[in-house]
Every structure is written in C-alpha cells, then in structure tokens.
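Job type: complex structure
Entries:
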Amino acid sequence: MPTASDKIPVAQLREFITACFIKLGLPPDDAATCGRLMAEAEAQGSDGHGAIRVIPYARRIRAGGMNVTPNIRVVKDKAAMALIDGDNGMGHLVMKRATEIAIDKAKQCGVAWVGSVNSNHAGPASLYPRMALSHGMIGLYFAVGNANHLPPWGGLDMLLSTNPIACAIPAHEEPPIVLDMATTVAAYGKVKAKAARGEAMPVGWMIDRSGQPLTDPKRAGEGFLLPIGGYKGYGLALVIGILAGTVNGAAMGSETIDFNADDVTPTNTGQAICVIDPDAFGDGHEFKRKVDELIREMRGSARMPGVERIWLPGEQSHEKRLRNEREGIALPPALLASLEVFAREIGVAHL
Amino acid sequence: MPTASDKIPVAQLREFITACFIKLGLPPDDAATCGRLMAEAEAQGSDGHGAIRVIPYARRIRAGGMNVTPNIRVVKDKAAMALIDGDNGMGHLVMKRATEIAIDKAKQCGVAWVGSVNSNHAGPASLYPRMALSHGMIGLYFAVGNANHLPPWGGLDMLLSTNPIACAIPAHEEPPIVLDMATTVAAYGKVKAKAARGEAMPVGWMIDRSGQPLTDPKRAGEGFLLPIGGYKGYGLALVIGILAGTVNGAAMGSETIDFNADDVTPTNTGQAICVIDPDAFGDGHEFKRKVDELIREMRGSARMPGVERIWLPGEQSHEKRLRNEREGIALPPALLASLEVFAREIGVAHL
C-alpha cells in the first residue's frame, strides 16, 4: 500500500504525461492537452483511462498506428453540426476540438452536434460533455468502443463494443450530474480485477457460449459480457455505435479494430458530442436551480436498509476529483514501477 | 380466442378512434391525427398504447384534465431548436408538430432538437423518431413517463418514471432500426400480465423495500421495478427526464402527475425529439447502405443453442405492422367489449 507521502500531485502527473507525449513526437500544445485530460481522468477516478494508458498509447504511436502531427480539420459543416476528420491523431485532441466547436455552435443555434471520423480512443466518455458545464450547457456524448466484447442478443460473434453514453448536466449549488456508462453490466476491467483477487463474479456479469451464467473470471475468455437489460443494452450499444460511428463514416461492427491486440491499423474511431444550451429553452439560471432541487430530492429519498447514502451520477467522481486535487493521487505500485521503466527508456524524468 | 374473422382492419380502428375523439370535442383534423397515431401504435404491437388508451384518455378529457382545443405554439425558437407549448393538448398532437419542426430545421442545420412543455402522454416513444425515417433522417426521442415507478438507486421513494429513450435509423433495403425502451428491466404492464396468469416473475424484474427479489406479481405494490443495469438505469432515467422535462420547464421527479390516479391535474408532460440528417455528415444513401450491412452482420452472427433468429431492434414490430396491416388486428375480447360499451355511451358506431 502506498502511504500518503507516495501520493502524486495532479499537476505532476499532468506534466509527466505531457513530457512523455512531447518525447513521442507530439507538438507541445497537443502533448499538454493530452497530459491535462489524462490527468483529469485519473483524478476523477477513471483509472482505466488515466496513467495506465500512457504505455499502450506510446506503443501504438511507436508502431506507427497513430499520427503524432495530425491535420485535424472540419470536413462537413452546417449551422448546427460539423464532422471533424481526426487524421488518426490522439482522440483527446480530436474530441476537445469537436466539443469546442459544438459549444460555439450551440451558443448560436441552441443545440449543436459534432461527429468525428478517423479519431482514436479519447479516454473516459465524461471528459467531453463535462466541457459544456462551464458554459452552463448540457453535453451528451456517444462513442464507439475500441474492442468488441458483445455479441448481438442471442448471438456468439462479438460484433459490438460496450459503446458508452455520457451526459453532463450543470447544477447551481450542487455538483453537476455526470452520467458515464458503458452498455454492459460490468466493464471488462472489473472482470480482470475479480480474477486478480481470485473471487467469483456475480451472476449477471457474463454468460458462456450456451447462455449459462459464467461466474469464474478465469474463464472470461469463454464467454461474453452481458448488456444492461439484456436485449435493451444490445439495442443501445447498436444505436450508440451508429450515431457515433456509422453516421460519421467511422468504424462500426466488424470493422472495429481491437486496439489491445493491434497497434498498427488505424482504428477509424467515431465519436459524437451534442451540446444543448438550456438558455435557449428558458432561463438557464432557473434551469440550474431546478437541477439542484432534483438532486436534493433524489438524495433525500428514504433509503433501503443498509444504504447509507443515495448518490447522484458523477457525485462519487466529483468527490474523488476534489480529494485527489487536494491530496494527490495514489497510483498502484505496479503501474508506478512500469511507468518508471518507461520514463527511463524514453528519457523523461520519472514521476 | 378471437378467430381470423374477428380481426379489425387498421383503417377501421383508425376511424373508430377518430370518431371517438370528434365526439369528445377535438377538431376533426386533430381527432384524425390521434386516430392515425393510436391505430399505428396498435398495429406495431405497442398494445399498451393503442386501443386500450381510448377510454383513459376520454376519462381525462371529460374530467377537464386535458384541453381538446389547445393553442399549440412555438414559444422559443433558434436555428436548430424550438420549444413547443402544448397548451395541455393531447401529446400526440404536440409531438407530431414538434417532430415536423425538428425535421424542417434539421434539413437546414443538419441537426435539430425540439422540446415540449405542457404536453401529455403521446403513446409509444417510437412513433415520433419514426417520422424522420421517410426523410432519410435519424430520430432520437426522450420522454418523461406519466407515473413514477422507480426510486433513485438505494432509495424507497418513487421519484422517477421509467423514462423511455427511442431511436429510429433508416436503412436501404432492410427495415429501419427502431429502438424503443423504458429504463426498467420490465414494463409495469408485464407485471400485471404475470399476475393475471398467476405466474411468478423472474428474479431481476422487481425488488421489495428491503432490496430482496420480489417474484410474486400480486405483491407488486410492495416493491419497485428494477432499472436496467442497476444504478446505470437509474442514471439514465434521471438524465432522460432532465433532457425531456426539466430543460423544457416540464414536470420531473416529484412534480410528475400519476395519470392513472389523477384525471384532473394538468400533467405538464415534457418530451424531446432530436433529428439528425445523415446527408449533412456524408452521403445519405451510402449511410443507409452501411446500416443494411450492419443489420445483416448482426442477423448473420452464429447463435446460442436454442436461439432461432437474431432480431434487430424494431424488427419484430415491423413484422407485426406488416401482418396487422394485411390481416387486421385481433383485439382482446375484454377490450372490445369495454370499447363497445364506451361507443354506445358517447354515441359512436361500435368497432
């Protein structure tokens, strides 16, 4: 267990990641954007999308699978939409740009939708809708995941990813509501964690190829993640994938590249961000006050026995972010050790 | 069991419902819109939203809880959005108008979003996004349900409805993809059907107030529907409700009126329709061809033992619609009998 003194300030993690990306060939501004967003992901507790991704991204860049100096540009444009070609650059750069454009267009049109093509993995889904919050706006995000773990309902061929949906809604005095969910009951990372601890999985996380519950995480390769609500989650994953991928001319279904197994083939990842300006529909301040009321109403509900607190979506991430910004982030020792080796290898001062 | 000769042509059902609404005081054009959309709901198998709703809607109208001659009007307008005040009219009229405006704006702007306030229950969620299909466009729909059946995750107070999301995506040669789902594992109607047949519910549909599985449908009043994916479905229901309700100034959370229990208080229902023009993002025809490919890929997946066919979202409704348009609709005898009594009472020729 790392002690408090092992904790790493968020700014230090941000600078470390930035330095790594500069060494990998990204222009300093782009490296800083990636460093900032990946440190932000780590700080909010999205630990599958923070420091742990530095080495896989680097591996892809060094294998030639990702463009470090992309020409990210608008290729389609109408009043309330744009399509951004990411030129196979880091997804963080593509979706930061896409979201900025969506915010500007939503100020004019009330609502705007910007899609990406030739993008890449962009970290946790919540990062981009959250960008709308400081403008008093709502962000809604859809993405095609970068590995297929889900068959169509009743099927055996893994043709779908756990395509996530995220939504960020500003409040007045309360923390914002930030939903960020994959369309499967459990994420693959949770299965791996159960295997590492030698624990069984609950019924409902996975099924085997005959449709029976699969609870031994060591047998995960023999089965599939279960979509939320059964056929409903399959339908959601499909529809989200079409909105984020097919509409934009990005990969979907069997075209999806497994970015864990293949470092070279461009992923042609697609994402979509929709920004909604509550001020266009009424009084933006009054809207945020009503969101406060709803939050307090949910939190104030009578509780089931044993439930200590009712959480709002994103509230736990919000508290983690505040704590980590104050106290620093405790990275797992094994991750720290591998980052130290990596830093030495590419010639960056270690974390 | 009704025989084939008992089947009612869709046109006959449409005309019957239209005649009822004219008798109830709606202008003939508005009555015809309600008749057409409710018959369409019945034809596609949304039998909880078709003929069965005639009497409850009539009860509400006669109690003064719904305005038969509403002044449905645009109260907010920007290039890519509008807010429609439904003036407490039938939700079908409000959302048909809202969707027409969204389609027109999406032709100009690429994407458009129209919300409703002072609306009412509008039938199955899929009706409105499906209107975009004949324009080669995608429809995405969110609504606040008209009765709260869902507590926040871990809570006991029913503060949320099973707020649905629906999405309709055009294909080229294949039937369109039409997702229409509530955010709970089972709909309340399914619970009632189990009770009527004296069957137990599967674990996962409902829990009791201590969080234990509830499988006796006669005890449904002692528990709650479970959201899909646990806390994920709670988050989805909350976020959908804010997008469809709070943004528009419509009811949400504890403000929701239970339209089964209260025929008088205006429901101030909120809905939102977003229309996306694939032609703005690329070649609309090529998009539909890619959707065909995806559909065939899903359908062609290897199958689990015992699975005869892999369905796409909306495919079963599509087949039902074709069959019912060809053969007519078999309404349950009890419903037919109650409609006959109702028809006599208001002076309409019975079905």
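Summary: Chain A has a mean pLDDT of 95. Chain A is about 40% helix and 15% strand.
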